[in-house]
Structures are given as C-alpha cells and as structure tokens.
C-alpha cells in the first residue's frame, strides 16, 4: 500500500542511500575520464572511450527495467552497489600493472552498465512508496539528491585529484558504495513476485514488445518526445559531456593541477544548476505545463552562444571560464526542470505494472544518440582545437532548431 507521508522511513533510506552512492559515482565519473584526458591529451581518444563506456548503460537500461518489475527493487540496489564497490577494489589493485586504456575502458563500461541497470529500480520504486499527490515532490527530491551529489563529488574530486592524484579517489569511492549497499538492506519496498517460466531472452523480448506496443498503440506522443530528446542529446548533451573537460583542460591556458580543480568546480556548478532546477520545479515551475517544454529546450540551446562568443572574441581565459560557469548552470537548470516534468508525465500515464520497463526503455532510447554525439564532438575538437568556438556554434544552432521544432509536439501532448 502506498505511503501518504512524503518522508517515510523507506523513502528516507532511499534518499540517504542515493546520497552516499551517487557521491562515489560522481567522483569516479569526474576523475577517471579526466585522468585519461590529462595523460593522453587527445580529445578524440577521450570521447571515444567515453562513448564506449556509455554503450552498456544504454543496453542494460531495458534489462534494469525488466528486473525492476520482477524482483525486489531493494535487492537490485544492494547487489549493484556491492558489485560497484568490489569493481573499484579490483581496479585499484590492477591500476598501474595493466594497460591503462584497456583497464579504463573495461572499468568505465562496467560502471556505466551498472548505472544503467540500477537507476530504473530507483525510479520505479518511487510510485510504490508515494501517492499521486507526493509523486512530483518525491521525483524532485531524487533529482535534487542526484544534483547535490554531483555538486559535491566533482568539487571534492577536483581537489583530491589536483593535490593527491587518483588513488585517494578510488579508496573513497569503494567506501561510499559499500556504505550505500549496507544502508539499502534496511529498505522495505512493496513487491509482488511475478511468476515467469520463459527464459531471460524471451522475457526481454516480451517486455520490450509490451513497452513498445504501449507507446505505439496507447501513447504515441511518448515516442515523439523520445525522438526530440534523442536529437537534443546528440547535439547539446554530447557537446557538454565532451566539450566541458576539453575546453577547460586543453583549450584554455591553465596548468594541469589548476585546470583539474577548475573542471571540478565547473562540474559542481553544473550540478548546482540541476539542484536549482529541482527546487524551481516544486516552486516557481510547479504549474509549468508540458505544452511549454519547448521553451526550456530552446533556452538551453541559446545559452551555448555566450561561450562561443567569448572564445571567438579572444577574451581572457578566466573570463571565458566565468562565462562557461554561468552558461552551464542555467543550461542544467532548464534541463532538470524538463527532465522532472517529463518523468512525472511518464509515470502518470503509464500503468504501474509497466512503469519500470517503460522508464528503462525511454532512458535507453533517449540516450542512444549520445555515444555517436561524443565521438563526433571528439573528432571536431581534435581538429578545431584552436577554433573551438566553431564547434560550439554548430551545437547551439542545431540544438535551437530542435527546441523550436519541438513546439509542435509538446503543444498537443495532453490531447
């Protein structure tokens, strides 16, 4: 039976577990790719490794949704956090004794794969604990925790990496994931076991067909929104993922130690924008309708232009960095508001028995363009490093066109 109280014991434990787990995850997402970029100095290699690492997350997201709908969601969280802690312990022992690029690719692929299987369980557990009245607030809190962890993680990671190197970060992440797993053991999530006699592949095929059929026959508007998000991720999200570290650590003239710390601050500011977006969703934007979401996407695209202009005009490195901070903060604010609104819409229109696999399928399809976008931007930055503003202008124009074109879809989303 759903809880009427927002901060019930179980939801509170989920929140605390998320804080601890995501803190370690944020540090790793910051440190491992940055270490690789600093050691190789190649935006193209950095982007390619990041893209390869992202693929398992996309592939395993639907499986994570299927698991979330069939087994106790708490058990999924506990097992995957224990697995992540063990993975990083193994990485720490192998670090420096095997091929660096191979080790990083395999580790990042496993980390992203675990994340892809993990997050649907977290998202799918919320409707089981909340009534409709508290659903938006609960989703906003989960997103704010994500943003807060991403805010603290990169800043701490930047300081640790800049002064002490990678090893302390690995040790902290092992402890964080272990604590999170222990915490999650005490969560109780309502669960009714489903009896399945089919093999895993038949279950995957059946459930994906069921989710796809729901989109095609009952809610085709969801498919159109997925296409929009997919295109937006191709041009804007991929640009931020690749461009932010490349510009700060390679294009701007800062030392390796300083650039690592500045990149950590930039990641923290980006996460702060996500936190602001979560707060605004429950206050100023609480009544913001899905029909107007094209405005959020359009403004996120427009905010890339100041970065490109400051670089094109040859302004000082510290001024360009300040412009980057302001822009990514606002971009993330608008993006988070959009994400919360879209996730809540999906949860409301989807039957409870389909929520887990629908969330995972939507996440999978929405993210499938990001590896391609990362590879493209890695190639572009590799060849236009001295004129990086050209790459940013291209991303801004394409993203803005997508944002404006999405008005036609969002205007009829509730029809």
From TrEMBL:
Membrane topology according to the record: Multi-pass membrane protein
Keyword Transmembrane tagged: yes
Superkingdom as given in the UniProt entry: Bacteria
Segments traversing the membrane: 12-32, 44-68, 225-248, 260-281, 293-312, 318-338, 359-380, 386-405
Main location: membrane
Coiled-coil ranges (or none): none
Keywords carried by this UniProt record: Cell membrane, Membrane, Transmembrane, Transmembrane helix, Transport
Residue ranges occupied by any Major facilitator superfamily (MFS) profile domain in the UniProt entry: 1-192
GO CC, alphabetical: plasma membrane
SUPFAM superfamilies in the record: MFS general substrate transporter (SSF103473)
GO-annotated molecular function: transmembrane transporter activity
Subcellular location: Cell membrane
Protein name: MFS transporter
Source organism: Anaerofustis stercorihominis
């Amino acid at each position: 039976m759903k809880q009427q109280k927002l901060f019930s014991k179980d939801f509170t434990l989920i929140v605390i577990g998320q804080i601890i787990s995501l803190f370690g995850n944020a540090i790793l997402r910051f440190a491992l790719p940055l270490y690789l970029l600093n050691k190789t100095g190649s935006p193209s290699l950095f982007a390619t490794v990041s893209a390869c690492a992202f693929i398992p997350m996309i592939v395993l997201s639907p499986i994570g949704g299927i698991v979330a709908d069939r087994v106790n969601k708490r058990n999924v969280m506990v097992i995957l956090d224990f697995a992540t802690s063990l993975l990083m312990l193994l990485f720490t022992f192998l670090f420096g004794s095997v091929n660096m690029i191979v080790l990083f690719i395999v580790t990042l692929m496993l980390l992203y794969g675990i994340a892809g299987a993990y997050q649907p369980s977290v998202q799918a557990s919320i409707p089981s604990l909340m009534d409709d009245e508290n659903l938006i607030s609960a989703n906003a809190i989960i997103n704010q925790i994500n943003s807060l962890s991403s805010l603290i993680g990169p800043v701490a990671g930047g300081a640790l990496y800049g002064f002490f190197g990678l090893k302390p970060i690995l040790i902290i992440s092992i402890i964080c994931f272990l604590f999170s797993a222990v915490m999650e053991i005490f969560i109780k999530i309502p669960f009714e076991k489903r009896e399945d006699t089919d093999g895993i592949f038949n279950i995957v095929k059946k459930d994906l067909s069921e989710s796809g059929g729901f989109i095609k026959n009952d809610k085709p508007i969801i498919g159109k929104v997925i296409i929009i998000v997919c295109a937006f991720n191709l041009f804007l999200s991929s640009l931020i993922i690749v461009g932010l570290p490349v510009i700060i650590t390679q294009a701007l003239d800062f030392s390796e130690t300083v650039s690592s710390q500045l990149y950590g601050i930039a990641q923290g500011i980006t996460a702060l924008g996500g936190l602001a977006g979560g707060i605004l969703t429950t206050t100023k934007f609480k009544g913001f309708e899905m029909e107007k979401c094209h405005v959020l996407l359009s403004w996120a695209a427009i905010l890339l232009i100041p970065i490109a202009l400051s670089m094109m005009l040859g302004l000082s490195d510290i001024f360009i960095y300040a412009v980057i901070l302001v822009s990514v903060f606002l971009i993330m604010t608008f993006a988070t508001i959009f994400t919360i609104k879209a996730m809540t819409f999906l949860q409301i229109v989807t039957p409870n028995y389909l929520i887990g696999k629908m969330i995972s399928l939507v996440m999978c399809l929405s993210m499938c363009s990001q590896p391609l976008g990362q590879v493209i931007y890695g190639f572009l930055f590799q060849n236009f490093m001295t004129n990086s503003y050209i790459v940013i202008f291209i991303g801004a124009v394409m993203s803005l066109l997508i944002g404006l074109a999405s008005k036609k879809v969002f205007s009829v989303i509730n029809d």
